[in-house]
Amino acid sequence: MNEFLLQPLTTLSRVGDKLSEYLSKLIGGGRVIDLLLHRPVRFENIAILPNIHQIINDDLVILKGKIEGHFPPAKSRQPFKINCYNQSGYFNLVFFKIYPSQLEKLKIGNEIAVLGKFSRLSGENQIIHPQEILPILQIEKMPKVNTTYPLSSTISNKFLLYKINFALNKLTDNFEEWIDKNIVENFQFNSFYETLKKLHHPQRAEDLLPMNQSRRRLAYDELLAWQLAILIAKKQNHQQKKVPIKFASDKNFLDDFIKSLPFSLTKSQIKAFEQINEEIISHKKMLRLLQGDVGSGKTIVAICACLQTIYTLKQACVVAPTTVLAKQHFNYFQKLLENFPIKIALLTSANTKKQKEQILAKLNNQEIDILISTHAVLEPDVKFKNLGLAIIDEQHRFGVLQRLKLVEKGHDVDLLLMSATPIPRTLMLGLYGDMDISILNEKPKNRQEITTSIMSQQKSQDLHNSIKNVLHNNQKVYWICPAIEEQEDLTSEDLGLVSVEKKFSELRQIYGNDKVGLIHGKMKEKEKDQVMLEFADQNSQMQILVATTVIEVGVDVATATVIVIENSENFGLAQLHQLRGRVGRSQLKSYCVLLYGKKYGPIQKQRLAIMRQSNDGFFIAEEDLRLRGSGEIIGTKQSGFPEFRIADLNFDNDLLKIANKQALIVINNDQLLLQESNKKYRFLMKLFGYYDFLKAIRGG
To answer: pLDDT tens digits, residue range 564-616?
Structure first.
C-alpha cells in the first residue's frame, strides 16, 4: 500500500543525512509523506516564447536563445553576463555567481531554452539567475506553470519541486480507500493518489485557496486519523488502574494549602478540582482537559491535583512548552508551597550535567514529589519511581506521541491537559470526542477588566504621550507586530504589515535603546528566554517589548499593563484575546490598543468591535468561529487548536463533524483496529503520525 510514503527522506536520490536534516526542519517531518504534504503557496503562469518587445518587467518567461558571447566581470562586484539572441531580439543571462559546470553547458553557439524572471534595466533585456536552462531540444521538459513553496535558506524551490515530482512518480494508484464511499461521492473527492498529484500541480490560482478539493480531501484524511486516535485513547481510558490506591495520612496537605491561600478559590476552580480529585482517587485512569480563559487560575487547580497525587504516595510532573514558562511555574509552586514539606525540582535544558544527574537520582528514589519540566522530561534517561499524575500545560503545543511518552514513565498515570484557549462548544465534541472536560469560566475577584480601544495606525503617534506616562509609573508595555521583517512573506507587502524589526528601531529612537527589547520566532530558544526574563524583571531597564505572536502564551509580567497590537484586523478573535491576556495579570488597571491598517473592512470592524465589548474568552471563541471562513485573516490556524498539518478548522469544521461520525462507527466495531479489513485505517494513522500512539495503546 505504497509503503514508500513512510520511508525516510534519505531514500530519495541525492538526499544525504545533512540535507535530510535541513529538509525535515522545513517540511516538519523526516518521511516522504511529510514532503508530499508540504503545500505550495503561490501559482504563476509562465509566458512561453513571447516576443521580447512585448514582455513586461517581472514576467516569468521561457525564451529560446542562441549564445552569442560571454562577458566576465571587470570588477569583483559586477556580474557575469551571457549574451543570447533569438528572432525577437537580444537578452542577457546575468549571474552574480556562476560555476564552471554551468559555463560548460553555456558555450558560445549553443542553443538553449531559459526559464526565469524577465527585467529591462537601462534598455538592457535580462534574466538574472535563471531558474532553469535546458538544451533547445529539451524545451518540452520546461514547466508550463510556476509553483512556489515555503522555503528556507538551505532549500531552493527548484530542488524542492524536483524531489516532490520524483516522489510522486514513484507512487502507484493502489491505495485502498479509507473514506466512506458516500462521503467521497458527496464531496466529489478524488482518490488519495490523484489528490497528492493535483495538490502539487495547480492549474490556476484558485487551486491554492482553502476550499480547494485537494486540500479539503487531505484535511478530511488528517481529521479522520486524529479522530481515530482520540476515540481509541478514550476507549482505553475506561480501563481500571491495575494497582490499588493507597493513602498516606501524613501527606494530606490539601485542606491546609487551600486555607493558606491569600485569596478564595472561584466556584469554577472548586468544581474543576472536585472533578479531578474524584478521578485521582478512583480506580479509573484520568484523561481530562482543563480549559480556562486567560487568568482564570488553572495553576492553582494544578497544584491541588499534585497535592492529592502526593497523598496517594505518588509523584506528579508538570510540563510546560518553554523554559521561561517552566521557571515561572516552578517559582509559583515554590512560593505557594514553601510552608509544606513538598520537594519540588525544575528540569530543563538549562540544567548542567551535574544538576541533571542529581535530579534524576532523586526522581528515581522518589525524593522529588513534583517535577516541573519542559520537553526535557521526555528524554529516555528521565525515570520516575512512581509517577501518578502528568499535567501538560498549553497541551496543544505537544504532540500526541509526546504526551504518550510522558504517561509511559509510570503505571496507571492520570493525565491532565491544560489549555488557556477557550474552544467553542460547537467544536469541543468534534475535537476531543467525549473526553472529560473541566471549564474555568471565572477570574479572581481582584482582577480588573482590560479596557480595549481601537484606532488607526495613522494615528499611532498619538499613543506615545500615553505610553510615556505608563513608563513613568514603572509599568511595562507589549508592542505586537505580525511580521518579523518587511515583506517577509508573499502577503506582507500587499497587506502593509508592520514588522517587529522596523518597529523596534522606531521605538528605540523615541524611548531610548535600553528601554526597548525585541523577541520573535526566528530567535534561538535561549535568546528568547533571556529577553523574556529581562522584560519580566521589575528592576530591568527594558520596559517595552516589541514582539511577534511568539508571546501569545508566556510568562506572567505583573507590571505589564498595556499591549499594542499592530494590524489587528488581520488576526482572528481568539488570537487577539490570547494576546490581550498578556496584560491584566495583577490588580493594576490594564489596556489593550488595537491598531488597524489597510484591510479594515466590514468584517474586520465587526471582529474588533467584539474585542472592545467583551473580555469573555468563551463568548469570543464562539464569535470567532461564527465570523471565520472568509479567508481574510493571516493567523491561519485557530489559536489553541491541535497542530494539524493540512486541516484548518477555520474552513473544515464541517469535515471534523463527519470524520467524528465515521471514526465512531469504525472504533465501535474494532476498538484497536486489529481486523484485516481495518488495515487501511492503520495505514492512514501511519501517514499522519498516529500509529506509534496506537501501538503503545495496544501495549497498555
So the answer is: 999 999 888 888 998 998 999 888 999 999 999 877 888 889 889 999 999 88
Contacts of 178 (CB under 8 A, 6+ apart): 221, 224, 680, 681, 683, 684
Pairing status of strand 111-121 against strand 124-128 = antiparallel
Compute how many other C-beta atoms are within 10 angstroms of the C-beta atom of residue 493. Answer: 12
Alpha-helical (H) ranges within 564-690 are 573-580, 602-613, 617-627, 653-669, 679-687
**SS3 at position 470:** helix
Answer whether residue 651 shows pLDDT above 90.
Answer: no
Strand runs (DSSP E) across 359-475, as ranges? 370-373, 387-392, 414-419, 436-440, 451-456
| Residue 490 predicted with pLDDT over 50 | no
Q: Is the pTM of this model over 0.90?
A: no
Could you give the 3-state DSSP secondary structure of residue 474?
coil
Task: Give which of 230, 290, 288, 231 is closest to 413, Cα–Cα.
Answer: 288
- CA 473/CA 346 separation, integer angstroms: 34
Whether 112 contacts 103, CB under 8 Å: no
Asked if 689 contacts 29 with a C-beta cutoff of 8 angstroms, the reply is: yes
Q: Is the pLDDT of residue 397 over 80?
A: no
Say how far apart CA 689 and CA 334 lie, in whole Å.
Answer: 37
pLDDT at 555: 73
Superfamily of domain 451-614 in CATH is P-loop containing nucleotide triphosphate hydrolases (3.40.50.300)
Task: Find cell 541533571 and name the residue.
Answer: 356
Same fold, 47-142 and 451-614: no
- The residue extents of the domains of the chain are 47-142, 249-440, 451-614
Nine-digit cell string for 33: 509523506
**pLDDT tens, position by position, 298-332:** 999 999 999 999 999 999 999 998 888 899 899 99
Cell triple for 215: 486540500
If 0-12 CB within 10 Å is exposed, 13-18 middle and 19+ buried, where does residue 509 land?
A: exposed
Q: Which position has the grid cell 533585456?
A: 125
What single-letter amino acid sits at 266?
T
pLDDT of res. 571:
86
Pick one of 3.30.365.10, 3.40.50.300, 2.40.10.220, 3.40.1010.20 as the CATH number of 249-440: 3.40.50.300
Write the burial class of residue 640 (CB in 10 Å: 0-12 exposed, 13-18 middle, 19+ buried).
buried
d(CA 472, CA 469): 5
| DSSP H stretches of helix in 614-676 | 617-627, 653-669
CATH fold of 47-142: OB fold (Dihydrolipoamide Acetyltransferase, E2P) (2.40.50)
Q: Report CA torsion sign: 598, 603, 605, 609.
A: negative
How far is Cα 263 from Cα 260, in angstroms, rounded to an integer? 9
Q: How far are the Cα atoms of 294, 654, 674 from residue 213, in angstroms, in the given order?
A: 36, 14, 31
Query: Does residue 430 surpass a pLDDT of 80?
Result: no
d(CA 218, CA 392): 29
Of 95, 176, 175, 166, the C-alpha closest to 130 is 95
Cell numbers placing 102 = 554551468
What gap in Å lies between CA 503 and CA 507, rounded to an integer? 6
